[in-house]
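Appendix B, example 12.
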Amino acid sequence: MEVAKKIYEEVIKLPEETQREVLDFIEFKKMKWKKI
């Protein structure tokens, strides 16, 4: 989970709109991984 924490810390520094895009992208990836 260290990687997720680092990503989260980086995302917090980004503008709010970018944060939303990144989080949406991560959610999308998680969904894809679950299907496999």
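Residues 2-35 form one domain. The chain has one domain: 2-35.
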